[in-house]
Amino acid sequence: MSLFQLLNGLTFAALLFVVASGFTLIFGLLRIVNLAHGALYLFGGYIGFTIATKLGSFTLGILGAMAAVAVMGFALNEGLLRFVRGFELRQVLLSLGVAFVLNDMSLVIWGGDSFTVPIPEELMGGFRVFGTFYPKYRLFVLLMGILIFIGLWVLINKTRLGALIRAGVDDAEMVEAAGINIQRVFLMTFLLGSALAGMGGVMGGAFLSLYPSADSEILVFSLAIVIIGGRGSLIGVGVGSLMVGLLNTMGQVMFPELAYFVIFGPMAAILAFRPMGLFGKAV
Amino acid sequence: MLEVKDLHSFYGAAHVLHGASLQVAPGEVVALLGRNGMGKTTLIRSIMGLTPPTVKQGDVIWKGETITRMKPHDIANKKIAIVPQGRRLFSSLTVTEHLTMFKSARATEGWTIDRIFSTFTRLCERRHHRGSQLSGGERGMLAVARALMQDPELILMDEPSEGLAPVMVQHLEGVIAELGRTGLGILLVEQNLYSALAVSSRVYIMETGKVVHSATSEELAKDEGAVQRWLGVHG
Asked: Structural domains in chain B?
């Protein structure tokens, strides 16, 4: 594996981390099986693409996509998912239905063509990394992945909101009985998770491009990452993203015909020996 | 201050509270006694608005306001706190996080983290430990401390001495008695008659979902018949 391929794996892992960290907040911590997460990623990507194209600002594209997808997350959580709280099978069916609706809406609004989110001039071109010329934008994605990891770690482990989220996951009724509106805390967490999907959509849309089935691909990767890393574990998502990102790149280069097996084979093995994932805890 | 009137609560179709009534005056320590399965915990959960059970009839009145069927966080914000059965600490939070999650560590009014640590010195020593790493006694102390950080005017304590070593029970009795002297109202569910009599001024006894007997602690201590009849204890 060359340095170029290693960096490809790492930068893909960083993008996967952004999306999967949002997924683990919702699926892992809140125990909501939101299979519309991939659709939120793609919808966010399209919204970011439209804003970045019309206004000529990549930053506004990211912020706009995050805000719009958070609003969609609010509607999804308050309008639908709250009625099936605690019923995982119903959540699966409901969120899958929402994913289909969102995908069809994307087709109506943006058509079936493939789009690439325009990136700012400063991120165009490349750097020389240990003698290998590598695109600046993908290094930016890697940096963002690292910054979001640090930000989420601080949020969950060092802030009052993070303590409330962890306490709520342990025992929501006791947090409620101590005077905290836990549903509001969970809603904020859901919105944050959704906004991360939107952000991932714009970041990924600039180098993987946006097309009608991109949502299911990213959803399957996110599921694999959370299952490998363990539900609700941020470190687990980090390690899972690295594994999936690197294995995916390595598989495509070395065993192209077995590319998916290279990811899902180890996932199956981990599930067989550690059903809770590498860093997951029994609930 | 707290008045429970003719409360009927259900777990699904099971009718558990059959018109329970009691009162706790401001700053009073009242014990709620009764054998297992008589509805004590159900009554505490009903007062706190926790579901299940479902309250279908009757009222919980707090400082003149009906709080029946309010959300638990709204009831807690009216300065009623709970020390639940089994402590129910948060396994992923440290001792300090248990105390600061509801109130800033820099708060200077009411119960502060410094005041908690000077009252429960053992918790201060263990402040970086997680809830799941504490001993039974420390868990009991932390559950009480967590409730105090909400600056309550009334605490509902559901068997705080359950599973504790005798020396820890004694320590806890001392803390409860001391809290009572500070003007805090306490409704204390206890299996241990002697523990309850040691700290409370009045007692209620529950039998099959109803309060069937009310007396001062002194009266009950002398009333061997009532103790035997309702609690099955030889005094």
From this structure: 24-41+78-231 (3.40.50.300)
